[in-house]
Amino acid sequence: MNSMKTRFSDDQLRSLEMAFAAKDRLDSGVKLLLAKKLGLEPRQVAIWFQNRRARSKSKQMERELDVLKSNYDELALQFEDLKKENRLLLVQVQRFRKMAETTNGEEDDSKNHDVSVNWEHTGYIRELSSEMVEPKYDKNTGGYLDEGSFDEGCSFQSHDSQWWNF
Q1: Beta strands 137-138 and 124-128, pairing class
Q2: What is the mean predicted confidence (pLDDT) over 59-63?
Q3: Is residue 165 within 8 Å of residue 132, measured between CB atoms?
Q4: C-alpha closest to that of 113 among 89, 133, 97
């Protein structure tokens, strides 16, 4: 067995690449003809095709990984935007509630005006007073440290049935 690495000529490489482009796996008859045409051993042709398939698979996986990373980055930005929008909406609800209380001459009594965030996919209800409590995201596990998931839709409800009467 020859331990020296075989260097193919440019013509041999062009022919091997053209054959690979046509079909990435050769049957034994085609392999013998190609080897004879190029002045190589059939085993050299077989090993070249095996290595070429491995390189091709590796390149394909790199392209797919790049697409996945790009999609992840885009989704992460959208997720952050949605969290910001969610916080702003909660602040607006609280402002409207204060406006309603001022209009109705009520005092600020946060115990009577708690906001519930209904995490629909889990059925988990989180009680809030003046600020939204955001679940803690664990980058190591890819999950949330407490119950409920912030990335699913949530709906806001009030224990005070009159909060929407402005």
Answers
A1: unpaired
A2: 96
A3: no
A4: 97
